[in-house]
C-alpha cells in the first residue's frame, strides 16, 4: 500500500463528507496500510489540505484550500 494511494483514499472520503473521526481513517489491521495512512494524514495536514480539531480526534477537509486553488 502506497502513501499516495492512501492520500487519494482520504481525500475522496473527506471530499464527500467534509470530516471524519481520525480513528475511523485507520480502518485496517495491516501494519503497512496503517503506516501509509498515518504518513498520508501527516502529508495532508502539512500541505494544508486537511486539518485536525484541537483534541486531534476529528479530521476536516479544508474547503478554503480547494477554493483558493480554483481561482
Description of the structure:
The chain has helices at 3-17, 22-25, 31-47, 63-70; strands spanning 19-21, 50-52, 58-61. The protein is of the alpha+beta class and 71 residues long.
Protein traits:
single chain, about 70 residues, alpha+beta, three-stranded antiparallel β-sheet, 4 helices, 3 strands, about 60% helix
- How far do the termini sit from each other? 33 Å
Backbone shape: globular
Helix proportion range: 55-70%
Main β-sheet description: 3 strands, antiparallel
List unreliable stretches of 5+ residues: none
Overall mean pLDDT stands at 90
The count of strands amounts to: 3
The arrangement of helices and strands along the chain is HEHHEEH
Q: Indicate the proportion of strand residues.
A: 5-15%
Q: In DSSP terms, counting alpha (H) and pi (I) runs of 4 or more, how many helices?
A: 4
Please outline what is shown here:
It contains 4 helices and 3 strands, in the order αβααββα. It has helices at residues 3-17, 22-25, 31-47, 63-70; strands spanning 19-21, 50-52, 58-61. It has a 3-stranded antiparallel sheet.
Detail the topology: elements first, then pairings.
Layout: H1 3-17, E1 19-21, H2 22-25, H3 31-47, E2 50-52, E3 58-61, H4 63-70
Antiparallel strand pairs: 1-3, 2-3
Amino acid at each position: 500500500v502506497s502513501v499516495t494511494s492512501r492520500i487519494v483514499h482520504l481525500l475522496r472520503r473527506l471530499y464527500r463528507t467534509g470530516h471524519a473521526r481520525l480513528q475511523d481513517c485507520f480502518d485496517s489491521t495491516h501494519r503497512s496500510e496503517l503506516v501509509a495512512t498515518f504518513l498520508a494524514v501527516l502529508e495532508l495536514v502539512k500541505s494544508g489540505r486537511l486539518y485536525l480539531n484541537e483534541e486531534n480526534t476529528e479530521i476536516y477537509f479544508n474547503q478554503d484550500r480547494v477554493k483558493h486553488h480554483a481561482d
